[in-house]
Amino acid sequence: MNEPVLSVRDLTVEFVTRRGTLRAIDAISFDIAPGEVLGVVGESGAGKSLTGTAVIGLLEPPGRIAGGEIRLSGRRIDDLPPGEMRRLRGKRIGMVFQDPLTSLNPLFRVGDQLVETIMTHLPVTKEEARKRAIDLLAEVGIPAPERRIDGWPHEFSGGMRQRVVLALALCAEPDLVIADEPTTALDVSVQAQIIALLKRLCRERGTAVMLITHDMGVIAETADRVAVMYAGRIVEIGPVREVVKNPQHPYAKGLMGSIPSLEESRERLLQIEGSMPRLAAIPKGCAFHPRCPHAFARCHVEKPVLLESGAGRVACWLYDGDTVARAETAA
Amino acid sequence: MSAPAPREDDRPMLVVTDLRKTFDVSKPWLERVLGGERKQLLKAVDGVTFAIKKGETFALVGESGSGKSTVARMVVGLMPPSAGAITIDGNVLSGRQGYPRALRRRLQMIFQDPYASLDPRWRVEDIIAEPIRAFGLAASPAAEKARVGELLGLVGLHPADGVKFPHEFSGGQRQRIAIARALAADAEFIVCDEPTSALDVSVQAQILNLMKDLQQRLGLTYLFISHNLAVVRHMAATIGVMYLGRIVEIAPAEQLFKAPRHPYTRMLLDAVPDLAMTGKPRVPVQGEVPNPISPPSGCTFHPRCPLANDRCRAETPVALDGVACHAVHEGRADLRATG
């Protein structure tokens, strides 16, 4: 096996507040291989965006990495000094955020922003950088790039801006792209274009992608593997087909069942009662137990670890060999 | 519950005929006159016609700028139409007079963002009691309190929650409060403008289920506005697809998803990420929604349409049998289901 581009081990992120320390991400581990798209899904407050922010080293105080390590191509990056991390960011890790309007500086021409980024990271002259910027704009599907390169961000539509942001993220040939809700602000027809583009560019370049979104449809179309997050932990991780078609964790099951389908019409949607716990009040044991229809005594006290199940791994005591054996003897 | 039971009545709840809304988006007068420019008009809604039966859900879907929310606002009377007629249960709304008071009680709206639609300084019980007070529906404070408690129970909250403020609730719970407020004056017809777009999927499922349950129990009629095709399919009996201010196709939900006819509907259905992962080949979507200030000539969809010809570029198609498309009318469109 080749070495993973990104390797996260027991990453823990905490916020120190006057009322005590809040643990927003609780010992999560995952790998992303070259050319692989890892989808990270979850509802608001699950910690998915925070995971991305921690990886690129943009956590803002009072948030801090309280434990674990992050490795990029085998090299540890979570303890780098800020200056070194800044050189890494943009060069080895590209980023795409949700709102393309706020990712671009409205006071600079699109081309200048691209040229600046290219020259920061690559040893090229201004002319070479400009040529490269035009090529990139053409590659992300912007018509007449030699003319559009001198346009201002406000002259681009939402979809076109997100293409520019994608070009910015890819301009230094990064090993890893972190895309945080890249299509959420866009209409479906444009969303489909951006997803197809992201997928094609990363396939061609062998770039690893961490795709953070709440939209299962986007994940199903794009990702190779998917991690489902709940209350700061990964509750299930596995090949996308397995997790979408045959989820194991009760939360993942509920999440999939609650999505209305285009294919068939059901009278009622599957419904998970309650809502995501607040950070200050994460339940003991398995954080999902108060909402879980299958919770039993062990779930109330013991935090589940990721257990092998089928093609993926699930953090649920239902899949622990001991429990299964006990349930069988009880029955 | 004092709401009326579902009635066997064929009279439609809402009839909208050739509804239009034009916004003046010109520059300020002096600047415009000095610059020698003409007035710029934006046709947000351009001749929309549909009807909703009592106890049914009709949905309008479309991308941003298609005019679906403008239709919703005109239907509830928040915005006077530029032209066209709206008839609610036989009462014609004409001109700028707004609705008669008795009708306004029966017509309510649920908004997209429950963080903006509830006054943060009001207690939940006051928010819900406001329509009751406005229409003088409670005989005594005790009766009002009982009614508020009953409404909170109806939407799945606890009657004791009434003393709290909106910030103490999550997004889903706030949307429940908004629904309770809409029902407070025994509304029969509720216009829902993207009621679940701001919510997470599991919470969305709770709200959609609640809305369906309430519809069955109280015989409510919904006009449901959304950009999410799957949500619309789940909720609506009949669906209208909007593009640049016009309805391009109206069809029963099943039919629209099984055999979409208008090229735009097909494109939209193809573009939705496929959770079932059937691996269907995707037709790459071309282009974006044009600027509504200067829409394309003829059929506004023609620059993105694979079936467009000279007639489409010159002539605006009229709705015939639920579809406004020359290619479909002429039999040039292949009517196979896309799935």
Largest β sheet strand count, sense and barrel closure of chain B: 6 strands, mixed
* Mean pLDDT across residues of chain A: 88
CATH topology name of chain A = Rossmann fold
Helix content of chain B: 25-40%
Average of pLDDT of chain B: 87
CATH architecture of chain A: 3-Layer(aba) Sandwich
Could you explain the architecture of this structure?
- The complex is a heterodimer of chains A (331) and B (339).
- Chain A has 331 residues and is an alpha/beta fold.
- Chain A has one domain (6-92, 172-261, 269-330): Rossmann fold (3-Layer(aba) Sandwich), CATH 3.40.50.
- Helix content of chain A is 35%, strand content 23%.
- Chain A is globular.
- By secondary structure, chain B is of the alpha/beta class.
- Chain B contains twelve helices and ten strands.
- Chain B has helices spanning 29-34, 68-76, 101-105, 124-134, 141-154, 171-183, 201-218, 229-235, 253-258, 263-271, 310-314, 326-329, and strands at 14-24, 41-52, 57-61, 83-88, 91-93, 107-110, 189-193, 221-226, 238-243, 246-252.
- In chain B, strand 9 (238-243) and strand 10 (246-252) form a beta hairpin.
- At the A-B interface, helix 8, helix 9, helix 10 and helix 11 of A face helix 7, helix 8, helix 9 and helix 10 of B.
Keywords for this structure?
A: 331 residues, alpha/beta, Rossmann fold, eight-stranded mixed β-sheet, four-stranded antiparallel β-sheet, 23% strand, globular, B: 339 residues, six-stranded mixed β-sheet, 12 helices, 32% helix, disordered N terminus
How would you summarize the topology of this molecule?
The complex is a heterodimer of chains A (331) and B (339).
Chain A: E1 6-17, E2 20-32, E3 37-41, H1 48-55, E4 63-72, E5 75-76, H2 82-88, E6 93-96, H3 100-103, H4 110-121, H5 126-139, H6 145-148, H7 158-170, E7 176-180, H8 188-205, E8 208-212, H9 216-222, E9 225-230, E10 233-239, H10 240-245, H11 250-257, H12 297-301, E11 307-309, E12 312-314, H13 321-330
Parallel strand pairs in A: 3-8, 3-9, 6-7, 7-8
Antiparallel strand pairs in A: 1-2, 1-4, 4-5, 9-10, 10-12, 11-12
Chain B: E1 14-24, H1 29-34, E2 41-52, E3 57-61, H2 68-76, E4 83-88, E5 91-93, H3 101-105, E6 107-110, H4 124-134, H5 141-154, H6 171-183, E7 189-193, H7 201-218, E8 221-226, H8 229-235, E9 238-243, E10 246-252, H9 253-258, H10 263-271, H11 310-314, H12 326-329
